[in-house]
Amino acid sequence: MTEMVLGPQILSVRGLYKAFDERQVLAGVDLEVYRGQIVALIGSSGSGKSTLLRCINLIEQVSDGQIFLNDEDISDPRVNQDQVRRQVGLVFQAYNLFAHLSILQNITLALLKVQKLSKDQANETAMALLERIGLADKAHSYPDKISGGQQQRAAIIRAVALNPALLLLDEVTSALDPELVGEVLELIRELKAQGTSIVMATHELSFARDVADWVVFLDGGVVVEEGPAAEFFGNPQQPRTREFLTRLNSI
Amino acid sequence: MVSPVELERRAYRRGKQNRSTLISVASTVLFAVVVWLSLVGSPGWSRVQTSFFDWPTLVGSFPAVLDGLWLNLKVLVFASIGVLIFGLILALIRTLRSPIFTPLRLLVGGYVDLFRGMPLIIVLYLVGFGIPGLRLEWLGRVPAEVLGTVALILTYSAYVAEVFRAGIEAVHPSQRLAARSLGLTYAQSMRLVVLPQALRKVAPPLMNDFVSLQKDVGLISVLGAVDAVRAAQIEVSHFANFTPYLVAGLCFVVLAIPTVRLTDWISRRLASREQVGGVL
Ligand SMILES: Nc1ncnc2c1ncn2[C@@H]1O[C@H](COP(=O)(O)OP(=O)(O)OP(=O)(O)O)[C@@H](O)[C@H]1O
Ligand SMILES: [Mg+2]
After folding, report:
1. Closest chain A CA to residue B1
2. Residue B270: which pLDDT band, with cuts at 50, 70 and 90?
3. What are the residues of chain A with a beta carbon less than 8 Å away from any beta carbon of chain B?
């Protein structure tokens, strides 16, 4: 169960440092993601999960260290950042969808303007995805007219539509009630079945245990412990990890 | 401590920064030279030079113009305060929702439409010559600069009220609801929650209106107030040379620069805050 055949490496973060002014948030983080893998990033609030994802998406400039996407050093200032972001999808906690566009338009926007698909092709792609998540009948609704869980699924689909090499999900379920969380997690499970590579910051430990191949525990700016989900949750090695898991489980 | 890769990256970024600074300096200088040469090369340049850029006239007219500018400054201060207060009141009335206030709201709406449509110079004439024309005994003789200030307040309040209103309406309704659910009254939630956020949102366009007001104070000269523009006019006929106008114009520019810079700075700061925003 713990042994699995690894595909080619998609992402490799090496010795990543990130400081905001004097505050050192990431202090030498290493992270590896292979094709088709789901990596869960856990850690207490403020441990730098979002910061790490933002660095990978090049929203934040790293203070030191390197990030390789498909063996290309994307932390190099010479790379075309737009090009990189086209390969990396990022979905936030909330406020993802553009309020002035319908669900369908939200999804087709980048297909039309970035991937330069024809209108028919874009609509077809978008509708197929909406069909899959059961939102086809909401295609022409505006974001404020659908539920939070539906919005979040549409936001994930919008990122998936661009066929990113890597999908980053930052606590996509934390603004949702448990029932809606289920909808979103179901979608992520489906994406996993299709071989999408995902790094997700999450507080849903049970979900991480279920769906993640690899779990990374971030604390004090470094990776304290990591491993296959079953091992990580079943038999944590570090005292700090145990403390964190017990505290979360007791709630 | 810092890895060689990072050091190299920093060096590259610094180099790129320097290069773009150099390019912008070079292109600015080039542009200035081209403009200067085509100006000096024009056939009427020497005539324009003697009638608009005459040094003795400049020096001779400067004290009088500066005296006038002092009046502009005073008018500006009073007009700004008046515009802020009156504009805010108008905006607050327009955002009242209760049906009892419908007539008041309509009245304010009409006022705003009227004064935004009316050219400032007409308002100046109407107020400046109309009010004294009423011959109100209790009012006595009102100085031209006071009437000018009133006209400026009337016109600019209409603009500023609309800016304020846009800001108030741009604050998400949930903010107001959150404030009300904490037990704050309507007025309290307006003052403590909505207005501070609204102000932050509209600071750049608001400042823009005040920059505009800053130069429009020069228009009170049409009522006969001896401000910088009127003083320049007097000096022009005295020296039989147009240089004093240039002096007055530059005085206004110098007066405006701090506000303009401040506006830029505030806009930039607000913009950068919006960008980091609470997205993640
Ligand atoms: N732009 C910024 N400027 C300064 N400090 C920041 C900035 N962004 C994040 N931080 C700080 O970095 C630390 C890590 O923040 P981050 O958002 O990555 O945490 P997180 O692990 O995602 O937490 P959460 O689980 O609450 O989302 C926090 O202490 C935060 O205050
Ligand atoms: Mg976060």
Report:
1. A64
2. confident
3. 15, 50, 53-54, 62-66, 75-78, 92-93, 95, 170
For residue B89, count CB atoms less than 10 angstroms from its CB and return exposed for 0-12, middle for 13-18, buried for 19 or more.
Answer: middle
* Mean pLDDT on A8-37: 92
Number of domains in chain B: 1
- List of domains in chain A: 9-96+170-250 (3.40.50.300)
Residue B99 domain-assigned (yes or no): yes
Judge whether B257 lies within some domain: yes
Which residues of chain B does A75 touch, with a Cβ-Cβ cutoff of 8 Å? 9
Q: What is the pLDDT at residue A5?
A: 64
- Using alpha carbons, list the distances in angstroms from residue B215 to B164, B205, B256: 21, 16, 8
Domain that holds residue B246: 68-270
| Atom of ligand 1 minimally distant from the CA of A47 | 21
- Does residue B142 lie in a domain region? yes
Residue B178 falls within a domain, yes or no?
A: yes
CB contact under 8 A, B13 and A77: yes
Closest protein CA for atom 18 of ligand 1: A48
Q: Which of B49-58, B158-167, B237-246 has the highest mean pLDDT?
A: B158-167
pLDDT at B116 over 60: yes
- Check CB contact under 8 Å for B9 and A77: yes
- With beta carbons less than 8 A apart as the criterion, state whether A153 and A135 touch: yes
Which CATH number characterizes residue B179's domain? 1.10.3720.10
Q: What is the ipTM score, two decimals?
A: 0.71
pTM: 0.72
Q: Give the residue among A76, A72, A19, A12 at the shortest CA–CA distance from B9.
A: A76
